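Quick review question:
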């Protein structure tokens, strides 16, 4: 499986970083893009730089490089995950903007009917945010916010992050053991 992962300027760059780590370990081929504010948020929240989180086999692309292969629907990637996804990027996707590699790839995923998962992070949400979420959902995207969850008995922030990553991987039917699934009779 080959995915395009984008990290945009919403809080929670760690979600993107951990998603790359976990999915790379599971053998998923990854093409990674940071928006300018995704990169700045990563630095603000962790002191890290995108180049430092790139493992062997993970390809990092410039968000201005519209010549990247998956900028075209003819390149057969399996789907895209924007994690975290800012309200700015959400609105651009909702209105069909495709002026950088992240929004162009999202637009390609929608037109080719491939999976597009948006891990949207903002709170509270305005009517504009909610309407944009409805718009992209109608076009085929999945809105998967990183919400707090307790039924898997998290003990650490990593447990919370792994839960969100696991929920994204579920969308691609990837087998993982990142969280304990609910089973009332356990
Ligand atoms: C520290 C920090 C945290 C931010 N958190 C959010 C957020 O959670 N959600 C959001 O939509 N925007 C957030 N923003 C604002 C976005 O970074 C800003 O709208 C930016 O234009 C997004 O650009 P992008 O979509 O190209 O990444 C944050 C900005 C900073 C500096």
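Suggested answer, residue by residue:
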């Amino acid at each position: 499986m080959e995915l395009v992962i984008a990290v945009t300027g919403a809080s929670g760059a760690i979600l993107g970083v951990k998603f790359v780590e976990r999915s790379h370990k599971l053998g998923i081929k990854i093409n990674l893009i940071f928006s300018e504010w995704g990169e700045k948020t990563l630095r603000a929240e962790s002191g890290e730089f995108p180049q430092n989180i790139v493992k062997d086999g993970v390809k990092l692309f410039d968000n201005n490089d519209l010549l990247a292969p998956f900028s075209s629907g003819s390149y057969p990637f399996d789907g895209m995950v924007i994690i975290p996804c800012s309200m700015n990027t959400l609105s651009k996707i909702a209105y069909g903007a495709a002026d950088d590699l992240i929004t162009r790839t999202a637009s390609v995923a929608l037109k080719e009917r491939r999976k597009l998962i948006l891990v949207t992070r903002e709170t509270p949400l305005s009517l504009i945010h909610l309407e944009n979420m409805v718009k992209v959902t109608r076009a085929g995207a999945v809105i998967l916010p990183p919400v707090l969850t307790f039924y898997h008995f998290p003990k650490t922030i990593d447990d919370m992050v792994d839960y969100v990553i696991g929920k994204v991987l579920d969308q691609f039917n990837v087998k993982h053991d990142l969280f304990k699934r609910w089973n009332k009779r356990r």
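Why it works: The first strand starts at residue 2 and ends at 7. Helices lie at 13-25, 36-46, 50-53, 87-94, 101-111, 127-138, 157-171.
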